[in-house]
Protein 1
Amino acid sequence: MKYLSSILIILFLAAACNSPQTEQASTDNNESTEKVATIEIVVINVSGMHCEGCEKTISDALSALEGVQDARASFTEEQAKVKYDPAIVSIEEFTAAIEDKGYGVSDYEIMPMENKIIEQVEKNPEP
């Protein structure tokens, strides 16, 4: 009787391991791994900002674009910094959004990976 019970348990486990649900779960895990977003940070040189109202106008215009996680403009630095997913939104769209509000774009720089890591650490200091 123990022998028969052991065989049934082994067959049950083998069937469960080869079930379509297990294969689907495996496929779902692979898909989620493939969908990991690549996040970039770009610094855009903006001309024509004169006050905090200008900063808000540009920040709001950039933040409204799909794929933008964070956008901040500074009239004193004459820059806008944008954290975004390049698979969803492009730098050309940032330029168009800024120029549509009446400001100029002269240049941009994508920040190197080291700066992205440092910025993340600065925003989330350990207790």
Protein 2
Amino acid sequence: MNTYENIVIMNASLTDEEIESAITRIKDLISGYGGQILKVDVWGKKKLAYEIKKQKKGVYVLFLYKTASSTVKKLEDFYRVFDAVIKYMIVKLSIKQAQDLEKVEVVPEPTEPKIKPE
């Protein structure tokens, strides 16, 4: 299985519930084909650099996942017909990038501050 990074721009006119529903559908699609979701990060509503499908704003969502390459084709086909998605980009991470990603995910956050106030 390969590691992929996927940026999705969703229609900004969607409600929060519709955005959550769309994210859940995408996660279910990846998991349904045997993929493993590593991270989902909602960046929020941002102004687009240029109009896409007559939209000036979009909701950015980052997905990191491991899946077979055949799933990516099915995911792209889904994005083309799914009205909530106005733009997407899927990038296959190199082995080094995937290893670096795993190192970052494993590092625990410190529970106490290192510098204590006096």
Protein 3
Amino acid sequence: MSIKSLITRLLALVLVVVVGLTGCSNPETGLSGDYRQDTLTVLDNLNTVIELPEDDPKKSQMQEKARKQINAYVARYRRDNSIAGLRSFTTMRTALNALGGYYNSSSNRPLPEDEKERLKQEFASVERSLELAR
């Protein structure tokens, strides 16, 4: 085996490791690949977003981040059969669908109070399910 061949293989291995490690997390959405932690992160961020006052200058920026995070979360976990059947995931997905639909269709209007309360109840249900490992 020549030096050139060895260097080429070593470089290929390093490239595979780098791509593999950088693909494990998404710093833009804050998701790590750990279902429980990602769910709690998304819940925390969404609670913050729905509680922001309408006149907050960062509201639209936070809503856009929430929209990206919702999409990344659902895309990451919906195909994982060990997670997709969990009560915490199905409840979370229901809440995310409601909030995502609202943001995609009427982000200029304030989130109605009854919708905020419904989301808070679903978020609390997700947290309870996570504690019970469901």
